[in-house]
Structures are given as structure tokens and as C-alpha cells.
Amino acid sequence: MVLQMESPAPSIKVENWLRGEPLANFQPGKVYIVEFWATWCGPCVAAMPHLVQLQEKHRDSGLEVVGVAAHEAAPTAVEARTKLDAWLTEKCSNLNHRIAFDHTGEMNKLWMEPSLAVGIPTSFVVDRDGHIAFIGHPMELDEVLPKVLNGSWRTSDQAKSAVAERIARNEPLAREQALKKPINERYWAAVKTEDWKTALSAIEEGIALMPDDINFRQAHVHLLLHRTHDMRTGLPVMRQLVRDAIDRNSEHWMIVALDQLFHPNLDHSRFPSAERFAMGKELSQHMLALNPPQGDGRKFLFYPAVARYHHESGNKDRAIELIELALKSLDGPEPIADGLKQHLLPDLLQALANYKGEKVCHGALCAAPKNNVPKVPRRSRPRRKHKTG
């Protein structure tokens, strides 16, 4: 079954309702936003304050927002649900809409897969007659939602054009995901039981199928260097990842490589120190050439990984400078969503406090130094859903 505009909305089949009253059926006369999201997904977290605002603004017009957490990364449903509930308690004290939890995959089968939705966050808007009116990114809702509420959206040329563009854009990605799905399922089942041989076999199958998939490449390096500690096999694979990242001139690939070399959550004690820092130096130089300090780019996305290399190599002042530039870029000329800013700011501040060894503040938010270097925004660690490899 294909799910698109004008299709009857699928049912809501979830394991638990963590916030708000259970929703058994879509009520005629109401408009619903069904939002697929996860706590590990930066854009999802960034969109949540916006959804809170939409619910407040349009409640009297019959809007109901329903968050569906169907992609939480945890070994068991109980762990995923517990983690999600704690996250909501800590981060979302002003939440004003329902949150459903599903770890079975049923909601993905009913909603995400038939609609060619290839990632999260994804918003489904259900019209007053129980039919799909819109499928897309939540940040598109400011323009779409008022027209759905007044009944003019589904008949508009704009809506039809949006559907055609989305299908043309997502169809190739959806086909690719279908090919990757059995590989990812085998990989994650092996990871769960720490069967690294089977996990490695699955990833190598994925690379043979899609040699340019960065998530498969990342997982390959991670398994060899940080799970099986096979330096003899892993070092050439790491070298090739670095070379390919530089040859592609890809910031995303460079960050993946830098994370494998310098992320504080990983043990690098078996890695030849001189070669690790040589790789880090080369990657950092290329990254800074792509995003020079004097430019106005989104340094908050790229500089934390480079700062980790400089800090670990002993250049504390350079690491501090890079984090300060990353913080400054949050308020740069290119606007970013408030939700994304609030998601990134604590980790950037914590990194700066650790590097300086003193308390630092940005506006009303402050951070004190900790002994361990903090996690910084991670864009590309292998995910259990949609972005796995």
C-alpha cells in the first residue's frame, strides 16, 4: 500500500502512551500532526519547541499534535521506554501534546515505509475527514498547517506540486533503504549479542553492495578498531576512510573519520599514536580550509570535532578558539532554529569549560569543567533506524 495525500490515515498502534491520554481513533472534525521523532535525532529535538508552539496556537482550531517515538536506540523496549521517559521529564517540562512509544516496528510499517519517508523527523498531517493532507518536515508546517485547517490545502496546486517533489526526491532513497534493511537488521541483532564476527560480515556485505555509503564505512572502521581491536586489518581501512573523505572534500566524511580517531567515548590506546595524530592533522587542515575561521559558515557543526584533535594533541589554546568560534556561529548571520540552538549549546559550552578548566557562560546558560571531555553534537554515529550502516 502506498501512503500519500488523500490516503486514509493508518491506525495508531503503539505500545505505550508516555504523555497525554491514549488516542484510539482520529476524531472527525479535528486535524492531527503525527510526528515521528527520536531523542538522538538533533533535528527532531530542535523541532519540538516548534510543535509545542503550533499546538498552543491552533488548539482552538481543532489541532492535536501526536509525537511518535518509534526509533529510540536501545537494546530492549524497556530500556528505550525508560530512557525516553527520563528524557521527556528532564527536557520537556512544557510539553503540551501526546507522546506515544513503539519499539515493535509496527508504526514504521503502517506509516513510514508506505509513505516513502526516509528519515526523521517526519510529520504526517491528518485532515478533518481522516485523510492524509501532508507528509514532510515539521519546519514546513508553518506554511502548510493554516491551509489544512481552513480546508484549502489538499485541492491546491501547491499541495500537488509538493507531493510530486517529495516522491521524486525520496523514491531512490526508499529503494536504497529497502536494500539496506536486511543488512541493518542482521547487523543490529549481532551488535545486541556482541557477535562481532557476524556484525562485521553484515557490514562487509553492505559495503560490497554500496561502497560509497558512509554509514557502512563508519561501522566497518568502528568494528575493526574499537570492537574487535584488529589493528592489522583496521588501520588500512581507517587510512582509506581518511583518504576518501579528503578526496571527496566532504565535511561529513571528515567528521566521521575524526570521530573514530578522537571521540572521547572511544578507546584509542591500541592505536599507533603518531599515525593517529598525523591523520587528525590532515583531516583538521582540510576541514578548516573548507570552513575558514574568517567565514560565516555553520562552525557549530564542524569545529567541535577539529577542536578535539587540537586539544588532545596539546594545543589547548587552538581548541578553545575553535569552540568559541563555534559558539559565535550559533548567533551568526545565517539563522538557525531556536530548538537546534538549544540542543547544541550545552555540549559546546561543556567542551569550552573543560578546555579552559573554568566555568563559562553563554547568555543565561553556564557550564563548569568536568574531568572527562563531554560528548559533542554527533551527526553520524550508526543509528538503529533510517541512518544505519
Layout: helices, strands, pairs:
Elements: E1 16-19, E2 31-37, H1 42-58, E3 63-69, H2 77-91, E4 98-101, H3 106-112, E5 122-126, E6 132-136, H4 141-149, H5 157-192, H6 196-209, H7 214-227, H8 231-248, H9 251-262, H10 273-290, H11 299-312, H12 316-329, H13 338-356, E7 360-362, E8 365-367
Helix pairs in contact: 1-13, 5-6, 6-7, 7-8, 7-9, 8-9, 9-10, 9-11, 10-11, 11-12, 12-13
Tell me about this structure.
By secondary structure, this protein is an alpha/beta fold. The protein is 53% helix and 10% strand. Strands 1-4-3-2-5-6 form a 6-stranded mixed beta sheet. Helix 1 links the parallel strand 2 and strand 3. Helix 5 runs antiparallel to helix 6 and helix 12 packs antiparallel against helix 13. The chain starts with 15 loop residues before the first strand and ends in a 22-residue tail after the last strand.
